[in-house]
Amino acid sequence: MAADLFDLAAEKLEGKTDMDRLAARGTLRIALKEAGLDTRKLTIPQLRAVFEKLMPKELEARGVSDAAATCQAAMNEITSSADSVGIASSTSADDVFKRLGES
Questions:
Q1: Cβ partners under 8 Å of residue 9, min gap 6
Q2: How far apart are CA 34 and CA 28, in angstroms?
């Protein structure tokens, strides 16, 4: 499921910038690696931190104007899309068991 979150985030980043799919995915991977995060274990709170703290710098380096606003808009779309496709926004034990009970 976390891989789906990476794909979703890259897709939203691509849609908010002039980057193509490969550039968006690569930029996201660089920011996640800088944060010490694994794309396979990625959570929405971790992704939010990356989009707030690291991604604006990465986007500015690639010529994206108003990078902070772009990151905020992308993160808003990621969060709402993740909810609609069933990607969990939390990984606490209580939330995991709650989701299991809903299945």
A1: 28, 42, 47, 51, 74, 78
A2: 10
End-to-end CA distance of the chain: 15
Tell me which H or E stretch contains 74: helix 67-85
Tens digit of pLDDT for each residue in 13-23? 999 999 999 99
DSSP letter at 17 equals S
Locate 8 and state its tokens. 């979703």
Residue 93: enclosing H or E segment and its boundaries? Answer: helix 93-102
| Residue range 64-85, pLDDT digits in tens | 999 999 999 999 999 998 876 6
